[in-house]
Amino acid sequence: MGANNGYSLSVKRIVTSTPFKFVVGKDGDTITVHSALAASHSRPLDALINGRMSEAQNGFAVLDDIDRQTFVRFCQYVYTGNYAAADPEILLDSSTIGTLDSAEQDCDIPGPLAVLNDRREVEPEFSESVSNLDNDATEWISWSSSRRNRRKEKGVHYPEETQPASPPPPQSRKSVLWTRFKELSSPIPAPPPQPCPNNEPLEDYTPVLLSHAHIYVFADKYDIPPLKMLALRKLRRTLVNFTLYPERIGDIVELARYSYANTPELSSGAVGGGADALRELVLDYLVCKVEYVVESEKFLLLMEEGGALASGIMRKIVKRID
Predict the structure, then answer these.
(1) In whole angstroms, what is the distance from residue 192 CA to residue 198 CA?
(2) C-alpha closest to that of 213 among 277, 169, 266
(3) Helix 225-240 vs helix 206-221: angle between axes, to the nearest 10 degrees?
(4) CA 280 distance to own-chain centroid
(5) Are strands 96-99 and 89-93 parallel, antiparallel or unpaired?
(6) Would you say 298 and 321 are in contact if contact means Cβ atoms under 8 Å apart?
(7) Tens digit of each residue's pLDDT, the chain (322 residues)
């Protein structure tokens, strides 16, 4: 059965297909998937499941280079068309590490950090100043409303005071690049929930970012273009909503290091042309944020390693110089 991304399969054909076992990760965890569904999404997996190799005869395949969580996300994708990213780690202090279910949750639902913020008391001076501002605003609104009513009663109409609109300032090349980066995170059909932004420096987003990169690398290896595109778009949306606190630059460094260590360096003459899409996404983000990351020792150490990443950043950074 050729790979067809699962769209033409009937539910009956999926659920009646023979279960196939995948032994994944260094610990050898066994995950069972409906064979027809897995095979329909990937030609390499189709060959393992239905081909003439020993895996098809034995009814299982060993994928010890794929971690368990990445394969579980692939299973989520083949059954639902989407996958959930990892959760960020909450680094409260050196002895307390927890997780926050915010990577794919509804942003309207307050998490633990929101509760902590709500418990912070407002300083008395600030509270009094807010109260005074509210009183002043109430008095002004009341006076303004009564004045307008008197005008209407007398049949007198005064023109509204308007200020001439000033022309918008010209955008810098940096602003143009960042706007373009955000615009590329356009919605996809049946868009998944928007990733919640990080609100505190103590939220380590390395697991979140790497979960998308791992899925991309998996989809590239097993020839699943729609899953590659989904991973890229989810990663881009996460980066657009990501607040780059100084403490979190290391998260981006780890994403860049993994991306360049696990993707091919395509030449301009390669089929399809250009560099790998994950590499380009990471480069675009780093160039947009270069004035922040350059202050980080972790980023400078990454640049000292040289290679394609360092040359790629230098190549792109020229484009944002005004």
Answers:
(1) 18
(2) 277
(3) 160
(4) 15
(5) antiparallel
(6) no
(7) 445 555 457 788 888 899 999 999 999 999 999 999 999 999 999 999 999 999 999 999 999 999 999 999 999 999 999 999 999 999 876 544 455 444 444 453 333 333 333 333 333 333 343 344 345 444 544 545 555 555 445 555 544 555 666 777 777 888 888 888 887 765 555 555 677 888 899 999 999 999 999 999 999 999 999 999 999 999 999 999 999 999 999 999 999 999 999 999 874 444 455 689 999 999 999 999 999 999 899 999 999 988 898 888 888 887 766 5
Bridge pairing between strands 89-93 and 60-63: unpaired
Count Cβ atoms below 10 Å from residue 5 Cβ, excluding itself: 15
The stretches of the chain forming alpha helices (DSSP H) are: 11-15, 35-41, 43-50, 54-58, 68-80, 112-118, 124-154, 173-183, 206-221, 225-240, 249-261, 277-288, 290-293, 297-304, 307-317
Contact 97, 105 (CB under 8 A): no
Which pTM was predicted? 0.71
Distance (Å, whole) CA 281 – CA 229: 12
288-322: b or e for each residue (b if 16 or more CB lie within 10 Å)?
bbeeebeebeebeebbeeeeebeebbeebeeebee
Could you tell me which residues come within 8 angstroms of residue 314 by beta carbon, excluding any fewer than 6 positions away?
none
Give residue for tokens 């929101």: 114
Which residues fall within 8 angstroms of residue 120, CB to CB, at 6 or more apart? none
12-23 exposure pattern, b = at least 16 Cβ within 10 A, e = fewer: eebeebeebbbb
3-state secondary structure of 6: coil
